[in-house]
Amino acid sequence: MSTDSHTFGPGWRVLAGIALALEALALLIWLDANRLPAQVTVGVGPAAAMRMVALLLAALGLAHGLVAWTRRVRATEEGFTPRDLAPITHHAALAWILGGLAALALCINFGGGFILGATALFVATARAFGQPLGVRPAGIGLSLTTLVFLFFARALSLSLPMGPLERLLLA
To answer: Between 12-34 and 46-78, two packed helices, what is the crossing angle to 10 degrees?
Structure first.
């Protein structure tokens, strides 16, 4: 019986269920993207982004399915279940991520916009994964969320919640 990090986590049945749910969601998103009207202006349109999301979800579903299969084979061969050595849930990390989601929702609700809210979520998630709070995660988050906003606003012609920073960028 091994204590490698790949043995931790949910059992193979849970992973197989997640794989099926991801594949079903990918199929629904793909079908929904096919019902959108064709883009008439410059840009690739919202259907392209939805298809990309569907493909990524399908790939994640496939990865979950492969991990479920290998865990099933291992459990059958060794009589081992990952729950035997499962680590304790890290509640502080979960609290940081949930706090980041709350900050994103509050920022959007009170007019702060997508970029600042998503940056707060990025910083909180980085903190949950062990990065100290500081300028570096905030700078990386601000850069990434600005690029995401500009991609959605310019390339896809979609609107995200606008705040002062977004209005400054699109002016």
So the answer is: 160
Rounded Cα distance, 68 and 23, in Å: 14
Of the candidates 153, 86, 80, which has an alpha carbon nearest to the alpha carbon of residue 115?
Answer: 153
User: Angle at Cα 86 formed by Cα 81 and Cα 90, nearest 5°?
Assistant: 155
Q: Which amino acid, residue 105? A: A
Mean pLDDT on 18-34: 92
Nearest Cα residue to 127 out of 104, 94, 103, 89: 94
Nearest to 43 by CA among 155, 170, 151, 150: 155
Which residue, among 23, 34, 30, 102, has the nearest Cα to 58 in the 3D structure? 23
Q: What is the DSSP string of the chain?
A: ----GGG-SS-HHHHHHHHHHHHHHHHHHHHHHHTSPPP-SSS--HHHHHHHHHHHHHHHHHHHHHHHHHHHHHHHHH---GGGGPPPP-HHHHHHHHHHHHHHHHHHHTT--HHHHHHHHHHHHHHHTTPPSSHHHHHHHHHHHHHHHHIIIIIS-------HHHHHHH-
Report whether pLDDT(4) > 70: no
Nearest to 127 by CA among 99, 164, 158: 99
Confidence of residue 121 (pLDDT cuts 50, 70, 90): very high
